[in-house]
Amino acid sequence: MTYRDYHLVLEQTSGLCTPLQSDTIWGHFTSYLSQKDSALLEQFIQTYRDKQPALIFSDGLPSVQNKKGNIDVCLPKPADLTIRMDNFKEQKKIKRLMWLTKDDLDLVIADNIDEDFSPEELIEVVSHTDLHNQVSRTAEEQTQLFALDEVWIKTEDKTSTAVWSIFVRVRADFEVRLSPYLKEFISIGYGKKKNIGKGQFKVEIRILDASLFPKINNASAFLSLSSFVPDENDPTDGCWQTFTKYGKTGEAISVLDGHITDNPFKSPIVMLKAGAVFKINDGKLHDYYGRCDLNEKQAVRKEKDYIHPMLAFVIPYILK
């Protein structure tokens, strides 16, 4: 199966209340597609049942865009990095990092790091809490305050702009039909409280520039740019970190089982964080790893037509 890679560049114009994780991004895209082209949606969903997915998303990665439009992407910190550091104090310093620049990742891949290794931090992620009024919709309810956590990204470089990068791998035979929606689906807002103006972006779509990633000719492993769940046939020799996700359904849940559900919650899911690294079993880097439909084996939702892809957008890596 042939794929082509795209790069979505997102400049925040409001607070972000939901993490830019690959499966959540996929859910937003699917919800938007259900409103625009129901026939295409059915074909799109079938690609995941057939284990030949039409789209694979990365997580949102903080990036810096200069005035010429060139971008430096902060890539997920490889999960094996702290193991490579012999000095305990250096391990503590590295442990708090979440991302690495391409140049610093090049040093890690080349195993050219020592106790003086000091990764450059291009982006600062700022989180703050705002208090909002909960409006009473009946005379019986009391108006009260509720807290809303928001995330922004910023850079100290005054000549550059902090943006988010999302990478998308599109199946070639779906490219013409799906690519027009890649910019539109997130331009209408993303995540929690988008109805009151949160999760808003200026969006640009580009063909992926491969120079954003380290160049590796003889990869022995892959680095995941996505939060994902490995498939039972995926490699197991690697390093990773996990987290538990408590997800909710999107707006399109009603079209999956013919009715509107009063329970928007999904079962908890243990996922691997972006930055997981695994040695390649067969000596060949695949286009993606992970499960095309987690709901097939794990009951994320009870609706029979519901699917939940947990796929990884991957780049070549060398694992020592």
Describe the fold and architecture:
The chain is an alpha+beta fold and 320 residues long. The chain has one domain (3-211, 219-317). Helices cover 20% and strands 29% of the residues. The protein is built from 7 helices and 17 strands. Strands 1, 2, 3, 4, 9 and 10 form a 6-stranded antiparallel beta sheet that branches. Helix 1 (22-36) packs across helix 6. 35% of the residues are buried. The model is unreliable at 254-259 (pLDDT under 50).
Could you give a quick summary of the protein structure above?
Helices cover 20% and strands 29% of the residues. With 320 residues, the protein is an alpha+beta fold.
Features:
alpha+beta; 17 strands; 20% helix; 5-stranded antiparallel β-sheet; 320 residues; 6-stranded antiparallel β-sheet
Mean pLDDT: 87
Shape: globular
Strand content: 25-35%
User: How many domains make up the coordinates?
Assistant: 1
Percent of residues in helices comes to 10-25%
Low-confidence stretches: 254-259
What is the distance, rounded to the nearest whole angstrom, between the alpha carbons of the first and last residues?
Answer: 30 Å
Oligomer: single chain
**Largest β sheet strand count, sense and barrel closure:** 6 strands, antiparallel
Please report the number of helical segments.
Answer: 7
Helix/strand/pairing class, anyone?
alpha+beta
Along the chain, the helix and strand elements come as EHHEEEEHHEHEEEHEEEEHEEEE
What is the number of E strands?
17
Radius of gyration: 20 Å
